[in-house]
């Protein structure tokens, strides 16, 4: 008996700057397992090869070179305990060796992680999903504001700009 075929969604996007039309798909569970096994091998070449393979597999449009990475979307990237490990691997010369300025991380305002990004990865771009301009509104809709109210968030963002001399993107 053959295994059932799983339909993988295909997404399409037109990049506004380059006017390039791209077709892509999410990575599969088997690709995630391959990445975990590669990480356990603790071999930079194995890890790099697996990351490149997943990127190539997920990019359906031919002739597309991945030249930047934006951590955003379904969930808070800084809530992932491996975000800084991932940045280290993709930026590290023993791994993918991409320039740090080619990476961006979006956050709703996790102050300790912003501080870590500032100190460890000063050239990585930071984007803030503010959602609401006051503590009152943020508290109603964003529980994170209880732990990191706007005053502490703005302080961390100011420190980031001063230390890195880089802009912060508002998303």
What does this structure look like?
The protein is of the alpha/beta class. The protein has seven helices and six strands, in the order ββααβαβαβαααβ. The strands form two sheets. It has a four-stranded parallel sheet with strand order 3-4-5-6, with no helix packed on it. A two-stranded antiparallel ribbon has the order 1-2. Helix 1 packs antiparallel against helix 2 and helix 4 runs parallel beside helix 7. The protein is globular, with a radius of gyration of 18 Å. The relative contact order is 0.10. The mean pLDDT is 89.
Radius of gyration: 18 Å
* Number of E-type strands: 6
Please, how many helices? Answer: 7
H and E order? EEHHEHEHEHHHE
Helix content: 40-55%
The CA-CA distance between the termini, in Å, is 49 Å
Helix/strand/pairing class, anyone?
A: alpha/beta
Major sheet: order of its strands?
3-4-5-6
Query: What kind of sheet is the major sheet?
Result: 4 strands, parallel
Beta-sheet strand percentage? 5-15%
Low-confidence stretches: none
Mean pLDDT: 89
Please describe the structure with a list of short key phrases separated by commas or semicolons.
171 residues; alpha/beta; 4-stranded parallel beta sheet; two-stranded antiparallel ribbon; 7 helices; 6 strands; 43% helix; globular
Question: How would you briefly describe this protein structure?
Answer:
The chain has seven helices and six strands; from the N terminus they run ββααβαβαβαααβ. It has helices spanning 29-41, 44-58, 83-91, 111-120, 135-141, 144-147, 150-164, and strands at residues 11-14, 21-24, 69-71, 103-107, 125-128, 168-170.
């Amino acid at each position: 008996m053959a295994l059932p075929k799983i339909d993988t969604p295909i997404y399409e996007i037109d990049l506004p700057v380059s006017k390039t039309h791209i077709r892509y798909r999410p990575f599969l569970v088997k690709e995630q397992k391959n990445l975990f096994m590669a990480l356990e091998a603790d071999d930079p070449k194995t890890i790099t090869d697996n990351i490149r393979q997943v990127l190539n597999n997920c990019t359906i449009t031919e002739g597309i070179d991945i030249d930047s990475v934006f951590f955003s979307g379904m969930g808070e990237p800084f809530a992932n305990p491996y975000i800084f490990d991932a940045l280290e691997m993709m930026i590290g010369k023993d791994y993918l060796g991409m320039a740090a300025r080619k990476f961006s991380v979006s956050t709703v305002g996790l102050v300790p992680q912003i501080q870590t990004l500032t100190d460890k990865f000063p050239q990585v771009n930071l984007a803030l999903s503010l959602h609401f301009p006051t503590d009152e509104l943020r508290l109603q809709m964003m529980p994170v504001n209880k732990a990191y109210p706007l005053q502490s968030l703005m302080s961390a963002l100011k420190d980031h700009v001063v230390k890195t001399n880089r802009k912060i993107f508002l998303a």
